[in-house]
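Design request, tokens follow.
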């Protein structure tokens, strides 16, 4: 048996994959250890952000040089960057002996002992043939109040800036029965909020594999039907999902916000650009007007819906006018939050060949303008919540309030982080509490439990 550490880069899907890996390694009898001493090091990589390959190399080189006297017996690079660069990683260090793409992950735990027993062995797992269902279950862990469940792998969209379809493969929806079974298990282990995950969740059931299963009589519901089935499971209080694609948002998906009480009034709907011209070059499959229609329909279904989004600024050929169209969309849609990045080439993606790249200084100046506007919008939206009542699902002690046991933090239905003060010290993890908001920070809210008058409330941190 060996000791192990896992480093995770990237999105919630990667975090979910790393948590699965940890559970299975523990079930195999391995033990967790700090990075400085672990015999096996797993680096789960992501290629969405800028220079992902360099980041992974830097991280591994740093660890290898810090552990010159006591190098790890096995280093494995997993995930999207592993898929992209494959066996090139082996040149980095003789200890780097396993490279596995996202679909190779199910086999990783079973190879650890073999690799430790044969120090010269190197293995690469880079095909797209393994499915999510081939993952073994792993050690049952006590589940926090919130849980994530993958409903699909890969993507069929080929947006011109993205390499996910090349690193995670084509879309494969998990079977309905496997998803329901995992949700039930997580609820039984203590989860009362579930977030369904996928690269393009609302295209669930639209892939080749799902269509073939359906033609053979298998129960493969639509995304809206899946939401209804999961949202009605006994014990589940809240359901969320991320990320949907605007082009795949159907009327029944929108209607679910009106009719499904457990579906939270929160949606992350990636816009990417407010300019129809840029959206067409990105290959997004919708234009500015279609996105605006969607927002109107969504807010008609659920008046208080909180929207968040992703934005890419400085896409090749983006003019000042295109960029201003993005700013105008931010104001019009009033996103509660957004993740914005400067465009950068991803080797293998189509936009690499676009010649009209935007200079870095213009990209950075635009990014700053987007982020400043978003900060103002968010502050304003949060300020409007002061003196209202909300429901907070508490996840752990507050990191903003130095009142151990008296202050807890969690998310409200809109996905906003709320710090809640109580009048006495107690354990509140997993409780859904009613709280009165009395102050707005830049990115979070401060509230007190509604039966507590808060007269003796003293914050000891600085305001965000
Ligand atoms: S929808 Fe587009 S951006 Fe999202 S993963 Fe698929 S190809 Fe990438």
């Amino acid at each position: 048996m060996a000791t192990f550490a896992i480093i995770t880069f990237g999105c919630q899907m990667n975090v979910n994959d790393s948590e699965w890996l940890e559970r299975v390694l523990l079930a195999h009898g391995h033990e967790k250890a700090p990075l400085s001493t672990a015999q096996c090091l797993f680096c789960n990589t992501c290629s969405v952000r800028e220079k992902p390959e360099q980041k992974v190399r830097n991280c591994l080189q740093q660890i290898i040089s810090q552990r010159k006297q006591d190098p790890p017996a096995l280093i494995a690079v997993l995930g999207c960057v592993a898929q992209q660069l494959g066996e090139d990683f082996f040149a980095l260090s003789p200890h780097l002996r396993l490279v596995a793409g996202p679909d190779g992950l199910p086999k990783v735990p079973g190879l650890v002992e073999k690799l430790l027993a044969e120090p010269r062995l190197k293995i690469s797992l880079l095909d797209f043939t393994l499915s999510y269902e081939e993952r073994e279950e792993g050690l049952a862990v006590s589940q926090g109040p919130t849980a994530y469940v993958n409903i699909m792998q890969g993507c069929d969209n080929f947006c011109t800036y993205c390499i996910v379809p090349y690193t995670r493969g084509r879309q494969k929806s998990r079977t309905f029965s496997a998803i329901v079974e995992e949700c039930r298990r997580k609820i039984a282990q203590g989860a009362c909020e579930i977030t369904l995950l996928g690269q393009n969740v609302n295209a669930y059931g639209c892939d080749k594999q799902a269509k073939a299963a359906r033609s053979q009589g298998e129960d493969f519901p639509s995304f809206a039907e899946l939401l209804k089935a999961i949202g009605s499971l006994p014990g589940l209080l809240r359901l969320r999902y991320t990320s949907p694609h605007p082009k795949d948002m159907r009327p029944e998906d929108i209607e679910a916000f009106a009719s499904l009480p457990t579906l939270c009034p929160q949606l992350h709907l990636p816009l990417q650009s407010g300019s129809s011209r840029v959206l067409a070059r990105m290959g997004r499959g919708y234009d500015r007007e279609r996105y605006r229609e969607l927002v109107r329909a969504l807010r008609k279904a659920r008046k208080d819906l909180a929207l968040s989004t992703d934005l890419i600024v400085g896409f090749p050929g983006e003019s000042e006018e295109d960029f201003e169209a993005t700013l105008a969309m931010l104001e019009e849609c009033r996103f509660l939050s957004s993740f914005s990045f400067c465009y950068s080439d991803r080797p293998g993606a189509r936009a690499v060949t676009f010649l009209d790249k935007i200079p870095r200084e213009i990209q950075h100046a635009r990014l700053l303008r987007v982020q400043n506007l978003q900060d103002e919008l968010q502050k304003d939206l949060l300020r409007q919540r002061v003196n209202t009542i909300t429901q907070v699902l508490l996840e752990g002690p507050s990191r903003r309030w130095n009142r151990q046991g008296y202050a807890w933090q969690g998310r409200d239905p809109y996905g906003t982080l709320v710090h809640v003060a109580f009048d006495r010290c107690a354990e509140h993890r997993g409780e859904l509490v009613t709280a009165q908001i009395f102050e707005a920070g830049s990115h979070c809210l401060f509230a007190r439990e509604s039966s507590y008058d808060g007269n003796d409330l003293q914050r000891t941190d600085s305001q965000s």
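Comment from the thread starter after seeing the answer: thanks! The CA atoms of residues 151 and 174 lie 5 Å apart.
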